[in-house]
Amino acid sequence: MSGVAALLPRALRYSLLIRSYRTCTTNTTRLAPFTSPLLAVESSWSRELSRRKLIVRGEGRKGTVGVCSSAGLRVVGSESYSTMAPITTQGLTPLQVVENSIKENKVMVFSKSYCPFCHKVKDLLNQLNVEYTTLELDQIENGSEVQHALTEISGQRTVPNVYINGEHLGGADKTFDTHAKGELLPLINKSDHTYDYDLDSREYGWVTPETVTHDWNKMVEGIQSHIGSLNWGYRVALRDKKVTYLNAYATFTDEHTLKTVDRRGKEKVITSDKFLLAMGGRPRYPDIPGAKEHCITSDDIFSLPHPPGKTLLVGASYIALECAGFLAGLGYDTTVMVRSILLRGFDQQIAENIGAFMEKNGVKFIRGAVPTSVEEVEEGTPGKLKVTAKTTDGEEITDEYNTVVVAIGRDPCTADISLHDINVEMAKSGKVVVNKEEQTSVPHIYAVGDIIEGGLELTPVAIQAGRLLAKRLYGNGKLLTDYVNVPTTVFTPLEYGCCGLSEETAIEKYGEDDIEVYHSNYQPLEYTIAHRPENDCYAKLICVKSENERVVGFHVLGPNAGEITQGFGLGLKLKATKADFDNLIGIHPTTAEIFTTLNITKRSGKAVDAQGC
Q1: Would you call 588 a catalytic residue per the annotation?
Q2: What Gene3D superfamilies is this protein classified in (predicted)?
Q3: How does the average pLDDT of the chain come out, rounded?
Q4: CA geometry: angle at 553 spanning 551 and 557, to 5°?
Q5: Which overall architecture, per CATH, does domain 246-283+414-474 show?
Q6: What is the pTM of this model?
Q7: CATH of 42-188 given 3.40.30.10, 3.30.300.30, 3.40.350.10, 3.40.190.10
């Protein structure tokens, strides 16, 4: 479970708006219904253009030219077109021309054919493969009247004048500034669909604004306030328990002595009969030029004093995917650079499902690549960073981003406290080697949390290990920490909860013939009225056949997966079997009840599409 993602309420943690990125391939904007066959012959082009006024140039990867006749506007000189609404001036007032153009076109550019700034905006949209429509005001008879009406509506006298999804963006400067912040494509690709079902309220009858905006600084202020209150609460709790708190760096001078140095340089020597090491870890930076100078980590993202803009996440850990999910949901152009596989150590079928869902909903992935350098090319808030990367095929790729977040793992904070000098055994990873009682090679020194070799980097695990250790040392406790059946959740846009073994690990441990996997897609009730996909959510139980189908792996992909997994995790600790799940009466209508009705095995090869009640 990531504290980064869990800090956010669901509507922010997952997403505000699904992105539906459309690229221009062979199709281009349809500017008007055809009134005659396409004029593809050059001589026909010339005759047609000589008789009519040029009104629209719809440009994408393949351009089109529109001409106006008594029948309205139609396309000439293009081999293909798509389905953007037509523009016609026949029988319309200048105000109606403007209003219709804005209403019926996703991206509308009011332009003049000779204007260099207009050409720059259109060139940018072409580079982004964005479908758009332009109205060339200098090429229509009542162009000045149309421009006057446009000024009245927008308050902007000049061209280009850009509208996106019916909302006024501005001119060239505003368009390029929005793109520099990584906000242009998310703005263009807004959809009425949502990642988070809390925002499906329109389908349930609520009247909400068409455009949902987000205040980054307000969110950061709230999160920092919450973190501050947590820290203060811990300080108060320590004081109430008469625990002395020292905010200082420490190093061992011998097996029973520590020297501490605070930020003022004041030294203090502490001796103790026993020590508990629980320093945790810190995000790792890649060893490449510019990484530490220009990149940030998940520890920093909620301290940014400005929106992140176009963002690259480096890594495929749960932290990388969680951050990518909520940034895309907040409307930022988001890309994840993945060296090999997603969510190493987790069930790979689920991991790929998560990646496919995120990609379908606007998060871009660069697979099989690692960054080789990060260079600042423009200062600002945010600035602009040039990232160079190399693929597994040896190809060099570059792109520019406003923010680069590295999430390639965490290193234990064990390097500078002289553990080697007192003969504490260390792994190559820098983590501390402990036995099943969290005891190091020095009998009176113990370790818990992220710094122990073979442990789980999860806050609740460290808390549990610390509690049980304290009871064993100073009470009558005998319980040891169970590092196997630990329920956890990855807070990606579609939550993933799991407990026990992945399918790969179960097969490796018990053999494929002794494993039975029960699984099914399912559709939460709240998805139905909101018209969400039926088969995005997935449930899986992994059972050992020779042990009366004992459940050794629990996996669920869907909303509230963490809440579901927390309860079922107890069943795995108590060695529940598939029959126990079958005999459990489900609560209807909940998503968790899918685990009481699983009856299709992977071995059978039967379809697992979601079924109704």
Answers
A1: yes
A2: 3.30.390.30, FAD/NAD(P)-binding domain, Glutaredoxin
A3: 85
A4: 125
A5: 3-Layer(bba) Sandwich (3.50)
A6: 0.71
A7: 3.40.30.10
